[in-house]
Amino acid sequence: MKKELNRRQFIQSLGAGAIAATGLLTACKGKRDEATASGTYQDPPIGKMTYRVNSNTHDRVSILGYGMMRLPVKGGGMGRENPDAEIDQEMVNRQIDYALEHGVNYFDTSPAYCQGKSEAATGIALHRHNRKDYLVATKLSNFAPETWSTQASKAMFENSLKELQVSYVDYLLLHAIGMGDDGMGEFYSRYIDNGILDWLVEQKKRGRIRNLGFSYHGDVKVFDLALKWHDEGRYHWDFVQIELNYLDWNYADEINDRNTDAVYLYGELHKRGIPAIIMEPLLGGRLANVPDNIVAKMKAREPEKSVASWAFRFAGSPKGVLCVLSGMSYMENLKENLCTYSPLQPLTKEEDQFLMDIAKDIYNLNTIPCNECNYCMPCPYGLNIPAIFAHYNRCIKEGNLPNKGEQDPDYRRARRAFLIGYDRRVPKLRQASHCVQCGKCVTHCPQRIQIPDELAKIDAFVEELKLSSDTY
């Protein structure tokens, strides 16, 4: 009761203007502790979704888009984590029905998602609804060299239509241009030399594609070339999908020199009037699971807002952002995000600066920029790369990284917590010590993390900890 009273007093101290600003979120918010305990949230309002209009096709698009990358599977978990898991189609249907009822109309999938099962599951769920009630986006995900031929790429597109049970795709993307050791070379091999991009333009003229665009990761020269072609009239991009969040706004390039700051990507699109679709607003969940001291700062400023809502509001606030994607595996994720965007309250200048300060705090933690997308998996030598990085990052977040030397009075406790937690979360045969530095994982990483180097550092760190004492 004392904690609740203090919270009320804090809200009262903000004044009437602040209370009005938080009122809508309060109305659809389940209390955080109760929600965590019960797994339920109060229902978000119906009819309050924020929409943006695509200037090219005049589509009315919900600001919240449903990313079909992390679908629930039977027995729990997500489809991308277990290749043998069966998608829980009943749950997918329920969540899509709920999303549509609450105003979400943009659904984003790919032949590569959920071990190749996402398009079919998405098609089954959406096909039960009127085709005019939803916009479906998918990708030409021809990453493997054997899919670069004209015939194979065409077959992939045709199969997407079949799996999605549609005669046309509303939004079709060239998937992740710029990726690979030779981003420019792979771009030409996947889409230009084989004539596939020209073929897709022809499919758009035939009405089988309504909006043609691309998603970008990696080599910024490929991004710049694609926009140069747009300026010259060689290819017209109806939209572009980029990674944008308050950490990547200014620090993507510093975190990883193969990434590009979102402030540049967004700026280049905005000045051309190209609508932006936003991916990774939470950096794979990292911005919903920030260190406790940062949580405290956010709660001190806005006790009624969740940590994740700050990131979603940041991603949706810039002009020209058409839709913000979220991979909502569970109904709780969907309900909370619906609350944030029903309607969206754009960030004020003061709130924007507050998040820039938060981003600086997170950047200074020096975590590995892994968002656990699992693109690096499976490792041919059995390592669980995302789990290794997640444990390392979690220990930094929780203050359990014993990096101050044995003279630190907290060293023994932190050392024990790190090593025991490592063995519990990652089986010994899947730990960093078994990396042979083959480098196959690097080309698949959208964040361009030099994975073998990071694994070697973690392995050396673990060995140093083990040698510093006889037992743990």
Summarize the structure in words:
With 472 residues, this protein is an alpha/beta fold. The strands form two sheets. An eight-stranded parallel β-barrel has the order 3-4-5-6-7-8-9-10, surrounded by six helices. It has a two-stranded antiparallel ribbon with strand order 1-2. Helix 4 packs across helix 5 and helix 5 packs parallel to helix 6. It starts with a helix and ends in a 5-residue tail after the last helix. The N terminus is likely disordered.
Q: What is the radius of gyration?
A: 23 Å
Beta-strand content estimate? 5-15%
The separation of the N and C termini measures 41 Å
N-to-C series of helices and strands: HHHEEEHEHEHEHHEHEHHEHHEHHHHH
Low-confidence stretches: 1-27, 29-40
Give the neighbour order of strands across the main sheet: 3-4-5-6-7-8-9-10
Question: What do the pLDDT scores average to?
Answer: 87
Q: Quick one: overall form?
A: globular
Helix content: 40-55%
> How many E-type strands?
10
Q: Strand count, sense and closure of the main sheet?
A: 8 strands, parallel, barrel
Summarize this structure as a short list of keywords or feature phrases.
single chain; 472 residues; alpha/beta; eight-stranded parallel β-barrel; two-stranded antiparallel ribbon; 10 strands
